[in-house]
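I'll show one example:
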Amino acid sequence: MTAARSHDGPGPLRRAGRATGRALRAPFTGTARGIRRATHAHGAGESGLGKLIELHAVNGAGDVMITVALASTVFFSVPTDEARGRVALYLAITMAPFTLLAPVIGPLLDRLPHGRRAAMAGAMLARALLAITMSGAVATGGLELYPAALGVLVCSKAYGVVRSAVVPRLLPPKFSLVKANSRVTLAGLLATGVAAPIGAGLQTIGSPWPLYGACAIFVAGTFLAFTLPPKVDSAKGERRARLIVPHHEDATPRPAPGKGSTRAGLRRGGNGQKPAKERPPGLRSVGGSVLHGLQANAAHRALSGFLIFFLAFLLREHPLAGQSAAVSLGIVGVAAGVGNACGTAVGSWLRARGPEVIIATVLGVALSVAVLAAVFFSTVLVAALGAVAGFTQALSKLSLDAMIQRDVPEEVRTSAFARSETLLQMAWVVGGGIGIALPLNAVLGMSVAAGILALGAATSVRGLLGAARRGTPHPRVA
């Protein structure tokens, strides 16, 4: 009888233990299921886009953990004058070499189309190892910290280039590229917002702890990268693209010496025979819209880099009225993050119809706010500039993505994303360099910010509006 009763079912203590376990797990499993439903909605799960969304969220969380650790070491832990020198050293050791490496990243990764999953996994694993390496030096701020920070930066940008190239391969049916990119970007922003306070909490335990957290996150990302569909590594139908400024607005390429017309690099020679070697197509054959859009986005990205470094020191030395330096930085940072998220959401809602007009409009809006901030510098206008800069950068980038999808032939679209992303990262580096070198004068800084946007407007708005008036032979993004 005793044996029979022992098999009738678990005892009351065991049942109570299982019930308690289910209750404790419920918030986490419920949250995980909710996240999975959101990332895999509308066919994103079947196409593999949902996996990429989750991977990008992991990437954003890991990067912000490293940012928290570096900011605490390089910026917050020392007096202002010493912090300025440390950040200048950080820029010299990390950003300057990156400026030289950035033009190589896109073409190098473009030569490895069959290893995109491995490239993203490698970028994750390398950052995990570098985070552990940095954990020993972050407390002292020694010079060995900076080469590791350079490695993290290069790996982060390499991941970004590959991710941009992968998105077109994972589009669900009836999904526009701008909508897909907005989902991926929004996931990264949300993950950053969740991980930043966690990183700050780990920082209170000890300076290496955010880096330990980053290592664990990137290790998870390494395995997650290999769960992407195999079609990510397919290069069927792709060719490399070159970003070349058109000689005139219709962007008809000149014939190559000894060969006839070279539209898209695939035409027959003047003698009616095929060229001995097929030339890679360039972007000249699609008109100037993409290149003008890239110029406008470079201005937005340079402004972002400039504001990050300039306002960080300006607000530490001269906080906003009635606020501490930390609160002042927090106000501008939150405003920029909210603006970026709103721009991403609006970009998905607008579905990037008329992207040339959108890019020209948001560039004008950002320029107007920067001019106001220079003339009437105040707490409200600084926060407004941060929010508007985040909003316009996100919306402009999504519109550029839409133009690339619309105007660039599918066989070179992946390559075009790699090159455009590399150029935009270089613009951010240039803007950051200007921000750290500039004297801490509020009016001067806001004037320089307005000048960066004015330069972008002068080089791009006329071409964008002209292209919008003429229309395009390519179908609009739906």
